Amino acid sequence: MQQAIMAYHQDEEHHWVAELVCGHFQHVRHDPPWTVREWVTTDLGRAQHLGMQLNCKKCDREEPIDAIGAS
């Protein structure tokens, strides 16, 4: 299910995590060559991608919402 990014935070390993409007979290790593998301490395890039739709597999599986520090 497609869900929009509403905010970001960093996990305990300092990887960026998108907070989706559905309440789920999803890592948004820049990890070339497998995943190219250079925009996640800057404040401006992350701000420009607020509202971007990501496929939320947790919604598809009807999982409960996430909480910071729980993952």
UniProtKB/TrEMBL annotation:
It comes from the Bacteria. InterPro entries: DUF3565. It holds the Pfam family DUF3565. This is DUF3565 domain-containing protein.
